[in-house]
Design a protein that fits this description.
By secondary structure, the protein is an all-alpha fold. It contains 15 helices and two strands.
Length: about 270
């Protein structure tokens, strides 16, 4: 049921600006530009996806990974960068799926070297040897691995939705309500996402929201240059986007095209 509601939420959030969203960079387009030599873009891309990298690493290790202390996170960062260099856009796989595969392979290699989990079977065990070709994967293995990747992605997406739903319930918000309160126009969504970004960037205001469940309406109207009515009537949507921005929800970031860019606050939200 949550998955159905979330898909409705996404359709309402994206249907009126499909052409505009096509102009925004997908992960594959980011990688293409980086491969043309834009190293600053590489740094930004990696920084934006650190929550995703940490999530993949934590799930692989089956424990929380501290990015400041655990070697596994450094291994995963290097693997994500390796995925940027190796990604083949013509292979028929998304960059996100490909990067997770590379991260997991490098983590398996790391675990083997550290001899911490001898029961982990490396991906190389699926490889066969041939006189003409040193290593190859059988068709059956590739199909099985592709099916496994698809299933895992779907499971992670469902888990992400469930986690966010639990977080939203603390603020008296449900996915069903989000479908109803989501703004209809692209300009309105960009404005509200910008307000949510401001909320998250202001640590005191965001901490206060999490402690009291109350949105700092007055402060946000002054910071963002919008009317009190705009913030109040879109309170639930702003809170939901702020939780997505501040949490580890890479799939939802991708669906909603949330970036770190500050958005234009000069236009009021229209219904």
């Amino acid at each position: 049921m949550l998955l159905v509601l979330f898909k409705r939420f996404l359709r309402k959030s994206a249907s009126t600006d499909a052409a505009e969203n096509e102009q925004k960079l997908t992960p594959e387009q980011w990688v293409a530009r980086i491969r043309q030599g834009d190293e600053l873009l590489r740094e930004q891309f990696i920084a934006d996806y650190k929550p995703y990298i940490m999530k993949v690493t934590s799930r692989f290790c089956k424990r929380y990974i501290d990015p400041n202390q655990d070697d596994e996170f450094s291994v995963a960062l290097l693997a994500f960068n390796e995925a940027i260099n190796q990604f083949d856009s013509h292979a028929g796989k998304s960059f996100i799926g490909f990067s997770e595969t590379v991260i997991r392979r490098r983590l398996i290699d790391h675990v083997r070297k550290e001899q911490r989990h001898s029961q982990v079977v490396p991906y190389s065990m699926f490889d066969s040897e041939d006189e003409e070709q040193p290593q190859y994967n059988s068709v059956e293995t590739r199909q099985a691995m592709n099916a496994f990747e698809i299933k895992r992605t779907e499971d992670e997406r469902k888990q992400e939705i469930s986690d966010l739903n639990q977080e939203l319930l603390r603020f008296g918000i449900s996915f069903a309500e989000l479908v109803e309160v989501s703004p209809k126009h692209a300009d309105s969504r960009r404005l509200l996402i910008g307000i949510a970004q401001t909320l998250v960037s202001e640590t005191d205001l965001f901490d206060s929201l999490k402690m009291t469940n109350k949105l700092a309406v007055k402060e946000l109207t002054e910071m963002c240059g919008v009317s009190r009515k705009t913030v109040e009537r879109n309170r639930k949507y702003i809170i939901a986007i702020a939780l997505i921005i501040s949490g580890t929800y890479p799939y939802m970031h991708n669906y909603l095209h949330i970036t770190d860019d500050r958005l234009d606050m000069n236009k009021e939200v229209s219904k």
